[in-house]
Amino acid sequence: MAEPDAAVTIRPIRPDEWRRWRETRLRMLRDDSDFFATRYDDMVREPDATWREWVAEAAAGEDKTLFIAEDGDAWLGVVGAFVRINAREVQLISMWVDPEARGRGVARDLIRAVAAWTLGRGSARVVLFVQEANTPARRLYERAGFRVTGDRAPASAGRSAFKLVLAAPVADLLT
Fold first, then answer.
1. DSSP reduced 3-state for 65
2. Is the pTM of this model over 0.90?
3. Of 114, 131, 132, 111, nearest to 123 (Cα)?
4. pLDDT tens by residue, 72-98
5. Where do the domains of the chain lie, and which CATH numbers do they carry?
């Protein structure tokens, strides 16, 4: 596992950063489309109000959050999370690290940020979906403390791929 990069800062998104989130989200969906259930063609049509509202709610940090990994002004990665129907569970979503920053421990730091947010709100478990074919991401999550639950679901409408459900007690993600 990579050592944490001292130059990288992990922080919650700010409400005024919705345009930058939109740009980053669209880039990740365009460049790594095989590994996300959400489609670029759908998200690119979303009105600005949708992006502003999502980021404002994530910045408030009550039921959802979005963390940014940055080095100076450069966004190296992002991850989101939201409280599931069972409030003891949080779902990790939209994990992405810029290809130039991979291997620097950015993803691990983002996972820890979600785990700390989860713990801070009194939830006990983090759940995520990972595309079955995304072996590097699955290995990353397993190294971080996630385990395959045995559940598997279609990736999304119109795709023949599947996604696996992984979960971890929050304490396992903070070690």
1. strand
2. yes
3. 114
4. 999 999 999 999 999 999 999 999 999
5. 9-173 (3.40.630.30)
